[in-house]
Amino acid sequence: MTELANTKHNEHGSSPQLWFVAQALVLQKLALLEESMAVSPSNLSQSKETPARSALSLKALLIGLICVGVTCVLVCYAELVVGKIQIGYLQLPPVVVGMLALILGIQAILRKLSERLSLAQHELYTIYVMMLLASMVSSRGIMEKLIPLLVVPNYFASPTNGWASMFFKWIPKWAVPWDPHGPPKQFVAARFFDGLRPGEHIPWALWAFPLVAWGLFVGLLFTAFLCLAALLRRQWADNERLTFPLAQLPLEMIRGENITIGGSTQPSFLKNRLMWLGFAIPAFVFGLKGLHQYAPSVPDITTDFDLNSLLFSQPPYNSAIGFFHVYISFMAIGFFYLLPSDLLFSLWFFFLLTRLEDILGARFGYQFPTMPMYGCKTYQGYQFIGCYLTLVGYMIYTARPYLRAIWSALWTWRRPVRLPGEENELLPYRFATFGLVGSVLLLALWLHLLGMSYWLALFELGVGIFVIALVMARSTSEAGMLMTETCFRPTDIYRMVGDLRNLGPANLTSLAFLDAVMLRDQRGLILTGFLDSMKLADGLSVRRRTLVPVFLLAFITALLVSGYYSIHLPYTYGAVQMYSYVYQGNPVWAFTDAASTMNHTNPNIQFFDILNFGIGILVTVLIVALRSRLPWFPFHPLGYALSGSWTMMVFWFPCLVAWVLKSLIIRYGGMKLYARLRPLFLGAVLGEFIMAILFTAPAIFNRFTPTPTFPWP
């Protein structure tokens, strides 16, 4: 197996060391078979000589545009107005899976009338990719962070917090729809949060120029991620052969063919009885929970256990231990079943280690502060900074031959050199490289016009794109993380060498905008959508080069549709009565943190935090080095990197359950049983997502409709 350390899998982490050494060759063969099942199950039934097809089909593009509009409307209403079930912000959004299932159901009916009415695999794929981007754009990826941010400083400014005197004069007029020289709570901001009164209209003219300006920023960011994805694909998918777990469910649904495993044929995914058995488990649990909301006499099934109140409700632990819940998510268990066992073990082990550290600290009287705007402790956050930087360095180190080949091809101007297979990449390597560099430089210039120092802008973007986003994309492509959230921002690195107050109010004001729109909440990261889409293209024999216009068309359409509804809905319902995290959480926290820095209340870096930064580097280097030398070593560096994130706070228990189940299955049934049970676990994913959509649908028409709580808040 060739993940970060390019080593073999460890499927029996609890056995003695000598046993592992004796079984090294057996483990290698098992790992290769496991990888073949996880990476591209279609290879088991499709011929490698299948000609690649274009993603450009007029029929698919027209249907895809309609589905993009529907997806944007569903996500905006469900997440902003209803605010009970978040169906769009996961890296594999439930709304997209539900829409794909609906399309497949309609196609099955139409196919009985005429084969001409059915869609080919590559056409279904095109529609799916367009919906995936639409969901990310309309949800936490862009719009839910951008639109509220443009009016939050004006609406929440008050004599108490002093935001008007601190921020207004440093905000360019072109960047916001209100007048920075005017008073707080201007009409455009007040009606956004309080709702329009009878006879009043949305002030679209005031929004026009700021939307165009920020649209340029978003377009440059889209270009940077598209170029970065084009450069990453070959190294991660072909050279390191990452598993891309989130691409497996849509691949199975779209492919719709029988699978041959070990000489025996299994029915297609949607006709597999094991899949429907897996589907039935979450359908029963969340169906019962939904009925309980309508009729309290129906028994409920608890899927959220608060360990903070059950086990650590007494001082000193109640104030020291971080967020500690047990969420039962069949969907998460299904995805984690696809991961290598050593990675699974590391994910839950390192998370529980962070909670043990909190307990020990409380036991000996230490009160660890938390990272600004994050739930993890400061000492953990600085360890993760060291870990992230080391991981990125190691990724570059392992990709040296690939990067050298690209570098050599960049500077042959007279006779351009094309690397083998480059013609089927998303973008030519030269275009992707210069496009990435150019878009980052232009993004820095845009931030400079916003009020940020150009070199500070380059630092923020460099860390945000090439460290945080890169590790988050790795966590999705290799570890199947459904949410991408980190524990630090680039400014936390700056604290190790200087005082943030020295940056000045102009920099701190523009940093508040950048933190809220890009850096703090990474969920809905579009980079992972590009990477998963290209992995799907490989499984369905679609030419990757033809994806570029599909991406562009879906992105622009989603920006227009979701942009309209992200403004229309608050003026209609009043943002103060809508989903609080979007309107009173993320953007408010960014300016509150900036204000605390200006007011000299933000703590400066201490030697203890620098020490933990070094510990993070050391621990990551040790894990990587030991993995490369010891076949039985059970730890994976991504488990350490993600242990303090909100993602692991939600999904640590499903990781543990999936690890136990997978270990037992492989120990007593071998890889053959593991492969046969794969539809069971993917069915659990489909079942939980479909139930979320079924309960969201009536709530869209009546926002007060009772709905069950799903274990991915």
Description:
The chain is mainly α and 713 residues long. It is 64% helix and 2% strand. The protein is built from 29 helices and four strands. α17 packs across α20 (454-479) and α17 crosses α26 (607-629).
Primary descriptors:
about 725 residues, mainly alpha, two-stranded antiparallel ribbon, two-stranded antiparallel sheet, 4 strands, about 0% strand, globular
Q: Give the structural class.
A: mainly alpha
Per DSSP, what share of the residues sits in E-state strands of 2 or more residues? under 5%
Please describe the biggest sheet, giving its number of strands, its sense, and whether it closes into a barrel. Answer: 2 strands, antiparallel
Numbering strands along the chain, what is their spatial order in the largest sheet?
A: 1-2
Describe the global form.
globular
CA distance, first residue to last residue: 33 Å
Range of helix content:
55-70%
Element layout with pairings:
Blueprint lengths: L16 H6 L1 H16 L18 H25 L11 H20 L7 H18 L4 H7 L2 H5 L6 H5 L19 H8 L9 H36 L8 H8 L3 E3 L2 E3 L6 H22 L9 E3 H5 L5 H4 L4 E3 L2 H7 L4 H23 L14 H21 L1 H11 L18 H22 L3 H26 L10 H5 L10 H15 L6 H14 L7 H27 L6 H19 L8 H23 L7 H5 L4 H31 L1 H24 L12
Antiparallel strand pairs: 1-2, 3-4
At a glance:
The chain has 713 residues and is an all-alpha fold.
